[in-house]
Amino acid sequence: MIEVVAAALIRDARVLAARRAPPHRLAGGWEFPGGKVEPGESDGAALVRECREELDVTVEVDRRLGTARGDATVAPIRLSLYAARLVTGEPRPHEDHDALRWLTAAELASVEWLPIDRSLLPLVAAALRVPPSPLPDANRAGRL
Ligand SMILES: Nc1nc2c([nH]c(=O)n2[C@H]2C[C@H](O)[C@@H](COP(=O)(O)OP(=O)(O)OP(=O)(O)O)O2)c(=O)[nH]1
């Protein structure tokens, strides 16, 4: 099983989608930034490394949203998707991608996702509807 991690980078209720560039065999398919976990590497460290390599940004990894498996006869991949946020930098595509889009929950179905990602989209939509950080206690108390 090949362990792959990917980041649902969320900003202002939108998530970043990236389109695979040619000549990759998956060119044209949309995915979440990420890649294979190296031996001895944690999921979080792999995500931070991949986002730096692919997008030239620093990210902070939050909770795992879910996992999905590929058809083992086609691609023995287990994809773990994590919510994440930008710390520094503005994402821009390098060699791996030729387009980036910030999608709202309503726009998630408007791009052609890689097959493994499709089952994870409802989890991403739910994460987009949840505020990224809890309200400060003072605010919460004021609303009770
Ligand atoms: N990054 C990423 N990969 C995905 C997603 N969905 C999906 O099926 N994959 C597949 C595509 C690839 O077969 C595999 C990830 O491999 P990769 O080529 O991105 O890994 P890598 O950056 O470590 O690249 P490499 O050094 O092996 O070339 O997982 C996704 O949302 N994000």
UniProtKB/TrEMBL annotation:
<dbReference type="GO" id="GO:0046872">
    <property type="term" value="F:metal ion binding"/>
</dbReference>
<dbReference type="GO" id="GO:0044715">
    <property type="term" value="F:8-oxo-dGDP phosphatase activity"/>
</dbReference>
<dbReference type="InterPro" id="IPR020476">
    <property type="entry name" value="Nudix_hydrolase"/>
</dbReference>
<dbReference type="Pfam" id="PF00293">
    <property type="entry name" value="NUDIX"/>
</dbReference>
<dbReference type="GO" id="GO:0044716">
    <property type="term" value="F:8-oxo-GDP phosphatase activity"/>
</dbReference>
<keyword id="KW-0479">Metal-binding</keyword>
<keyword id="KW-0235">DNA replication</keyword>
<dbReference type="InterPro" id="IPR047127">
    <property type="entry name" value="MutT-like"/>
</dbReference>
<dbReference type="GO" id="GO:0008413">
    <property type="term" value="F:8-oxo-7,8-dihydroguanosine triphosphate pyrophosphatase activity"/>
</dbReference>
<dbReference type="InterPro" id="IPR000086">
    <property type="entry name" value="NUDIX_hydrolase_dom"/>
</dbReference>
<feature type="domain" description="Nudix hydrolase">
    <location>
        <begin position="1"/>
        <end position="128"/>
    </location>
</feature>
<keyword id="KW-0460">Magnesium</keyword>
<keyword id="KW-0378">Hydrolase</keyword>
<keyword id="KW-0234">DNA repair</keyword>
<dbReference type="GO" id="GO:0035539">
    <property type="term" value="F:8-oxo-7,8-dihydrodeoxyguanosine triphosphate pyrophosphatase activity"/>
</dbReference>
<keyword id="KW-0515">Mutator protein</keyword>
<protein>
    <recommendedName>
        <fullName>8-oxo-dGTP diphosphatase</fullName>
        <ecNumber>3.6.1.55</ecNumber>
    </recommendedName>
</protein>
<comment type="similarity">
    <text>Belongs to the Nudix hydrolase family.</text>
</comment>
<dbReference type="GO" id="GO:0006281">
    <property type="term" value="P:DNA repair"/>
</dbReference>
<dbReference type="InterPro" id="IPR015797">
    <property type="entry name" value="NUDIX_hydrolase-like_dom_sf"/>
</dbReference>
<keyword id="KW-0227">DNA damage</keyword>
<dbReference type="GO" id="GO:0006260">
    <property type="term" value="P:DNA replication"/>
</dbReference>
